[in-house]
Every structure is written in structure tokens, then in C-alpha cells.
Design brief:
The chain contains six helices and twelve strands. It has about 280 residues and is an alpha+beta fold. The strands form two sheets. It has a six-stranded mixed sheet, with no helix packed on it. Strands 4-5-3-2-12-11 form a six-stranded mixed sheet, covered by helices on one side. The longest helix has 15 residues.
């Protein structure tokens, strides 16, 4: 979500905060499951904690939803779960980890139970106690070999989840990213992300990157041999998309089978769906 005060604070933070490296806040080493031979269906969605916004004026008239829950908090999540029930890996941004505004529901856990996902990982980026638990979330039907969470440089509250899937010969690195609103902060964050993945072979990087396709091409990630996708893939605002802020980047060793942006208005962003074949079917 585009919040004016947040962009102003990020600009100030860029000037005052000398931190460059992000911080690894934790990691898990797990027993990896084998990836399927069929194409993987992946999705990225900034779900705005389940707050449906269909006009700009709703940012004002529904601002109470940043603090108070709707009358039916569980019902608000049901259509989001239906959206990705046939996906293999899902990256969510702005999912609430269980605070007042979500009716104290851990939204990631509830969605996993609703859709039958076996693995979830949650990264809380902004902990406002009982008032708000802003998080990134990763869901997968296959157990990853390892998972890391990193705090990105710049204004505190932006992060990345990095998960490695598969077994020897069929490995895949997946990142769930939520970048800053300001260009200077994003450049630092993308520089950090490049250092994380420059030695990985097969990569899917997805999330709310808060920048255009053109900015990504000119960014520190621009020369990493991604398979760039083109066409009508704008995601923001959900009711009349004119900007492509949400992306799924796929490294050159994989094959994109299909990509789409469904006309879904469950947040102020639309989701991105992609079918990806690992290792070109080898």
C-alpha cells in the first residue's frame, strides 16, 4: 500500500541511517521434499491484511481497518484462500500475524489450514503489539531444505524470506520480497538482495517490489539474466491498474509456461500468478 507518511520517513531514514547490510534474523534447516516434475504454480500477492479497497477514497473512509477488525474477519480471508488453493508456492506481503486489526487471527496460519498447505514461514517486519503485526508469509506444498529471513537495509520494516527447495540436481531458490517506497532505499535493498542470490542457480524472486519493470532493468538485479515478462501485467491499484509494482522474476535456467494478473479486488494490489517449469523439463 502506498502511504505518504511512510515514503517521507523512508527518505529521512536514508539520510540518517548509515546501515548498509541487512541482518539475518533467523533460519531453519529442514528435511527437503522432492519438487514435482510438473510445472510449479507460484503466486505473489500483497493482501493488505485482507482489506478490500476499490477506490482511492477508501484509504480515508476505511482507514479504521488498519486498527479495527471487520465484523467477519474469517470471511474476509475465504476468497483469498480460494485464489491460491491450486498453487504450489505462495508469497504474501502485508499479512497480519494476529493483532486487533485481524481479529487476533494469524492470517497466514489460517490460510494454510484453509488451503491445505504443509509448510508456512512468517517474517514479522513491523511489530506494533496488539495493534498490528505486519508480516511477509511463505506457503508451500513441498518442504524446503532451508529457510532464512533477512531484514533489508533502510527503514526498518522491510524484509525478505529466502527458501531453498528440492534435492540435489533439482534445486530451486525462492524469495518473497517487500521493498521500500523510495528509490534510494530500493536501490540499497536490491544491492543487498543481489549479494544474497548471485551464487544461486535457479531462482524465483517475487513480491511487492514497489517499482516498475523499467526500474528493475536498470537496478542492481538488471544484468542477472532474468526472463523478463511483458504485456498487460499492471497490478496497482487493483480497481484500475496503471502501475506494475508486483513482480515474479525467473532466472534463465527455468521455463515460464504462463503468467497472468487476475482481475481480483481483495486488496489495493492485484496478485501475480505464474506457471514455471524447473530446469526446462530436464
Amino acid at each position: 500500500m502506498q502511504v505518504p507518511w511512510e515514503a517521507w520517513w523512508e527518505r529521512l531514514q536514508d539520510r540518517l541511517d548509515p546501515r548498509v547490510p541487512g541482518a539475518l534474523r533467523g533460519g531453519q534447516v529442514l528435511q527437503a521434499g522432492a519438487l514435482p516434475d510438473k510445472p510449479l504454480r507460484v503466486m505473489s500477492f500483497n493482501m493488505q491484511a485482507g482489506m478490500a479497497v476499490t477506490h482511492y477514497h477508501h484509504y480515508l473512509t476505511r482507514s479504521w481497518r488498519h486498527v479495527l477488525p471487520p465484523s467477519s474477519a474469517y470471511e474476509a480471508l475465504r476468497p483469498i484462500g480460494h485464489l491460491f488453493q491450486h498453487c504450489d508456492i505462495v508469497a504474501l506481503q502485508e499479512v497480519d500475524a494476529g493483532s486487533l486489526r485481524s481479529g487476533f487471527i494469524n492470517q497466514l496460519q489460517h490460510l494454510a489450514e484453509q488451503t491445505g498447505f504443509h509448510f508456512t514461514f512468517q517474517q514479522i517486519n513491523r511489530d506494533l503489539g496488539r495493534l498490528g503485526q505486519y508480516a511477509n508469509g511463505l506457503l508451500a506444498r513441498v518442504q524446503p531444505a532451508s529457510v532464512e529471513e533477512h531484514q533489508l537495509p533502510g527503514l526498518r520494516g522491510r524484509g525478505v524470506i529466502l527458501a531453498r527447495f528440492g534435492q540435489q540436481g533439482r534445486e530451486l531458490t525462492v524469495l518473497n520480497v517487500h521493498l521500500a517506497l523510495t528509490g534510494a532505499a530500493r536501490k540499497r535493498q536490491l544491492t543487498y538482495i543481489r549479494a544474497l542470490i548471485e551464487h544461486e542457480q535457479h531462482i524465483i524472486l517475487m513480491g511487492d517490489l514497489n517499482c516498475s519493470h523499467g526500474e528493475l532493468l536498470a537496478s542492481p538485479l538488471g544484468d542477472m539474466h532474468w526472463q523478463w515478462t511483458y504485456g498487460n501485467l499492471d497490478t496497482y491499484p487493483s480497481w484500475r491498474p496503471v502501475r506494475r509494482l508486483d513482480h515474479i522474476l525467473v532466472s534463465s535456467g527455468l521455463k515460464i509456461v504462463h503468467v497472468s494478473v487476475p482481475d481480483i479486488r481483495l486488496s489495493d494490489h492485484r496478485p501475480v500468478l505464474m506457471d514455471v517449469q524447473l530446469h526446462n523439463g530436464d
